[in-house]
Description:
The structure holds 3 protein chains of 3 kinds. By secondary structure, chain B is of the alpha/beta class. Chain B has helices at 2-5, 56-63, 86-91, 109-116, 125-140, 155-168, 185-200, 212-218, 241-249, 308-316, 338-343, 353-356, 364-367, 386-399, 416-428, 446-461, 473-479, 505-509; strands spanning 17-27, 30-41, 45-49, 71-76, 79-81, 94-97, 173-177, 204-209, 221-226, 229-235, 267-277, 283-293, 296-301, 323-328, 331-332, 346-349, 434-438, 465-470, 482-487, 490-496. Chain B has 2 domains: 40-55 and 92-249, 3-Layer(aba) Sandwich (Rossmann fold); 267-358 and 394-509, Rossmann fold, CATH 3.40.50.300. In chain B, the strands form 4 sheets. In chain B, strands 6-7-8-3-9-10 form a 6-stranded mixed β-sheet, with helices on both faces. Chain B has a 6-stranded mixed β-sheet with strand order 16-17-18-13-19-20, with helices on both faces. A 4-stranded antiparallel β-sheet of chain B has the order 2-1-4-5, with helices on one face. The radius of gyration of chain B is 25 Å and the shape is globular. Chain C is built from 14 helices and 2 strands, in the order E-H-H-H-H-H-H-H-H-H-H-H-H-H-H-E. Chain C has a two-stranded antiparallel ribbon.
Amino acid sequence: MEDIIISxxxxxxxxxxxxxxxxxxxxxxxxxxxxxxxxxxxxxxGAVIAFIVTMITGHPWLGVVAxxxxxxxxxxxxxxxxxxxxxxxxxxxLALTMLGLGLSGLIGKPYVGKPLLIKMEDLxxxxxxxxxxxxxxxxxxxPFFYLAIALALASWFFLEKTRLGIxxxxxxxxxxxxxxxxxxxxxxxxxxxxxxxxxxxxxxxHLSISYSKSWIEGMTAGRGWIAIALTIFALWNPGRAIWxxxxxxxxxxxxxLLQPLGIxxxxxxxxxxxxxxxxxxLISFKDPKKLNAPAMLGEPYNRGER
Amino acid sequence: MLSRLFFKKSIMKKIKCLEMKSIxxxxxxxxxNQDINLSIESGEIVGLLGENGAGKTTLMNILYGLYQPDSxxxxxxxxxxxxxxxxxxxxxxxxxxxxxxxxxxxxxxIENIALGYKGTPFFFPxxxxxxxxxLFSKKFDFRIDPDKKIWQLSAGEQQRxxxxxxxxxxxxxxxxxxxxxxxxxxxxxxLISILRGMKAKGHMIIFISHKLDEIMEICDRVIxxxxxxxxxxADTKDTDKKSLARMMVxxxxxxxxxKEKLAKGKKVLSVENIxxxxxxxxxxxxxxxxxxxxxEILGVAGVSxxxxxxxAEAITGIRPILSGKVKIKGRDITNKSPRCIYDNGVxxxxxxxxxxxxxxxxxxxDNAILKQHHLKKFSSRYFLRYNRIKNHxxxxxxxxxxxxxxxxxxxxxxSGGNIQKLIxxxxxxxxxxxxxxSHPTYGLDVGATEFLRKHLLELRKQxxxxxxxSEDLEEIFELCDRIAVIFDxxxxxxxxxxxxxxxxxxxxxxxxxxx
Amino acid sequence: MIxxxxxxxxxITPFRSFMTIVLSLFAALMVISIIFLIVGVNxxxxxxxxxxxxxxxxxxxxxxxxxxxxxxLIGTGLTxxxxxxxxxxxxxxxxxxxxxFATWAGLHFGQKLPPVLxxxxxxxxGFIGGAFWGIIPAILKIKYSINEVISTLMLNYICAEFLTxxxxxxxxxxxxxxxxxxxxLPDSAILGLIPGSRIHYxxxxxxxxxAVVLCVIIYKTRFGYETRVVGENPDAGKYAxxxxxxxxxxxxxxxxxxxxxxxxxxxxxxHHYLGYPASISSGYGFTAIIVAWLAKxxxxxxxxxxxxxxxxxxxxxxxxxxxxxxxxxxxxxxGTLLIFLIMGDYFLNHKIxxxxxxxxxx
Lengths: 306, 515, 362
C-alpha cells in the first residue's frame, strides 16, 4: 500500500511537470494582458522539435534548447497578430494552436513510434532523497521536475520582485498609464508572449524526451488547455501554480488507479475543468480587486486615442 | 519677454525657464490652439485659466509630448527642443499630473512609483522606493501609506502619488491639470500648501483650472485661454476676479435672462431623499430631494465629480438607488429598468456620450434609434421597420445638421461633434416629458450650441421639463428657471435663477456656503 | 529613417473587403506551399490534390457536402454569438451534448412513437441539448462575469468526458460486443440519405434554412439589432435598456442549439450510434470558428465558407492517402488561413503609409 501511494504521488509529480511549465508561461503572458490560447500548439511544436533534435544529436539538452527556440519563434505569430495588428486574441490563439498541432504532425511524421534511446537520469538529491516518503516523491525526480519548480519560483520572483516584473504586470493592468511612464508597452507584451511560448515548448519537450520518450501526433492530449485552466486556478500566481499543477497531475494519475473502485476515470478527468469553473465562480463572488486577474486581459491596446 | 531669449544657460540641465512660442494645433481641421505663447520661470506658479474646451489640456499635452504642434516651438533655457513623447518630456524635467490619474489601481503606491522611476533598481525595487516615498513624505509634509493599493486611496492621496512620481523623475516643471476637481476642500488646502512648498524650493508649476478663486489664491501669473486663443494674461496681484472672468468668457458675465416667463405647470418629477453609491461603492448622493415641473428647466451647477453623473444615472435607471424614491407624474420609477423609465417619458443625454450613446460599428440609422428601437413606430413585435427608421434618421440629420454624406455610413466614421449632434437629436426629438441632459453642449461648436439651447427652451415651452447638468454657469443662468448647486452629493441650494443669493454660487460650489 | 504609420480606413466597400479575403487566401496558400516545399512535398501537386479530391469528383463533392452540413450549422450559430462578441468556442461540446440528447431520445422513444414523429423529436432533443450546454456559459458570463472563452473551453472537455463516461458505462450497447458505444438507433430515427452519398438531406435542409433565417434575424429584427448593439458597445446596450441576460441567453441557446442539431446529423445521419467524441466530431466546433470568420459573420455566407472548409477537410483526407501526409496537415492549412484572414482584416480596416522621413521636420 505504501509503495502504491508513493509511486502514485511520484507519478503525479511527473504528470504535473509539463502542466507547471506551460502554466508558468501562460501566467507571464496573461499578466502582460495577452490571452494566448496557442499553448497546446506551441507545446506540440516543442515536443516534436525536442524529440527530433535529441534523436539526431544525442543530446537531450540541445533538444530542449531547440524546442524553446522553436516555441518562441512560433509565438511571435500570436504576438504580431494580437499586439501589432490588435487582432482578436481568441481567434489568433486558436490559429496558433491549429498551426502548431498541424506543423508538429507534419514535421514529426517520419519519427512516429521511434523510441528514444537516450535517457535522462533521475537526480537523487543528496541527503534529501533519503527522507522517508518525501525523499522518493520530491527529491529523486527527473531534471525537468526541478527545472519546472525552479522556473516557477523564478517567475514569481521576476513578477513580484523585479522592476521588469512590475512593468509586465502594469502593462496588463493599465497599458495607457504604463506607457505615460515611458515604458514600451508593445515590447513588454512581445517579450511576455515570447517567454510564455518558450515555457510551453519546454513543457512539450518534457513530454517527448522525458515522459514518454517517443513522439506521436497529438501527444500533448489537451494539456495546453489544462494549462490555460490552471492559470486561472492559480489566480495568475506562479507560486500557487506549483501546487495547483501537481494537484491536477495527481488527478491525471489517480484516474486509472480508482477505476477498480467503481469511480469512472472520465469523471475524474472532468474534475480539473469543473474545479476551474468553480474557482471562477468563487472569484466572481469575491472582490475581484483582491485577486490577481489582469484588468486588461485580452484587450488590445490602441495608442493615441483622443 | 525678449530679454529672456538672450539669457542662454544651456549648460544648466535643470529648467530655469521654459517658453512655448506661437503654438498652433488643430484636430480634424478644428483649431484647438492658435498662436499661443507661454513662458514660465523657476519659482513661479502660472495659472492657465479657461472654460472647458478652451484648449488648456491640448496645450499641456503638447508640452508633455502627447501631441505634436502643427507649428510653433518650445524652448528650454533658451534652447529650442523637440518633445516627441512623454519620455522625452520627463527627461527634460517636465512632469504632468493628469486630470484622470495615470495610476494602476490594483497595484500598490510603491509599485506605481517604481514603474516609471529611472532609478528603480532591477532587483527588489520596492525597498528603495519605500525609502524614497518616506523621504518625500517628510520633505513636502505628505501623509501616504506606500503599501496601500491605489484603489484604497482617496482622490487626494492618489494625486499625491502622481506628484511624487513626477518629482522623483526630477520634474522641475510640474503641470497640474484641473487638480482640484476631484478633491475635497480640505484636500485642496493641503494641495495648495504642498505647491507653495515646491515653489519655495524653486520648482515651477503650471496650474490648469477654470476656477477663479484657486487661481487667484496660488498663482503668480495667469494666462487666460478662450476658444483656443490667448484672451489675456496678468499678474494676479494686479488683477481681480471680475476682469479675469471677463477674459475667460469673452464678455461680462451678465446674469440676464432673455427667456420668456412661463408659469409652472404640473409636477413632473419628484425625487425624495435618494441615496446612491458611486462606482467605488462610496456614497455619491446623500439624501437628495427636489421637484421639477412642466415648463421648467432646473439646472444643476457644480464642479464635476460631485454626484452629478450619479444623479442622472439614478433617475434614468442605470444606477441602483439605495433608498428614497423617484416619481414621474406620480408613478414610482425607482430602480425600474432604463427602458421602462424611457417609456415613462424620460430621455437621457449621458455625460460620456461617445462611450454610452453609440454603437460605433453600426450604421447611422441603426444608431438613430438606439433607445427608441422598441417603440411601436419603429418595430412591430419582432421586426424593425427600416423604412420608417431611415426617414426618422433623415429628419434628425437635417434638423440637427449632422454632416455626413449618407445615413448608410457607420457611425465610427463621423467626427466627434457630429456624433454629439446625432445623439442629442435622437434624445430630444421624441418630445420627452423629462429630458435629463448632462453637459449637452460640451464639445459642440458655437452654432450647434446655440441651436441646442434654443431647442431646450422650445421643449420647455411645449410643456416638457429639463434637468440640465452643466459646468458652464453662463449656460445655466441663460437657460434655467431654477438652479440647484451640488457639492459632495448634497444640494447646497435650490434657488430661482434670479435670486440674488446666487451671487455666492462660487462659494456654494466650493461647499463653503449652504442655504 | 523609415516610419510606418497607420490610420483607420473608413471607406470600406464590399469590393475591397472581398478582394482582401481573396488576397488573404492567396497569401495563405503561398505560405502553405512554402511549408510543403520544406517538408519535400510538391505544393502545386498537394494543393491541386486537395481541391480535386474535394470538388473535382462527384464522390469527393458528395463527401464535401456531407462535411459541410455541421460546419454550416455551427458556423451559422457562431456568427450570431460572435456578433454579440460572445466568444463561444464551445461548439464542440454543444455538438456532443446535442448528440447525447438525440441518442437518448432515439433510443427511448424509437420503438414507442410513430416513425413520422421520431425524426423531428430527435432534432428537437439535439437542439435542446446544445442549447442547454450553450446557456450555461451565458449565465456564467452575465450573472457572474466569468469569461466565456474559458468557460466554453472547459465545458467542451467536461462534455467529452461525460459522453465517454456514458458510452463505456451505463449506455454501453450489447450490440457493440464489449466495445464502447451505444446500440444503433432504431431505423425510424435514422436520417435518410441522398442515394449514393452520405448526405443526410434533412440536416442539410435545416442548415440552409437556418443560415437564411439567421441572416434575417440579425439584420431585420429587434433581437438581431439588440445583439449587434450589445456586441458593438455593451455600455450603449445598457444605456439603451437592452436586457443583457435575455439577449445573451437567447443567442447562446440558438448558437448552442444549432451545434446540437449538427450533432444530431452526425449521430443519426452518419454513425447511427453514439461513439467516442473524436469519432462523432472531427473538430467541427473549432473549424466552424474559421467558417464564421471567413463568412464575415454573415450567416448566409457560411454556406460558401462552410463548403470551402469542408472541401479542405475532405481534400486533407485525400492527400493523407495519396501523399502519405499526416492527418494534422489540415490543421496547418486551417491555421494558416485563419492567421491570414485576421491579418487581412487589419489591412482592410487601416491605411498604411511608409514614410521616409528626415529628422528636421516639425
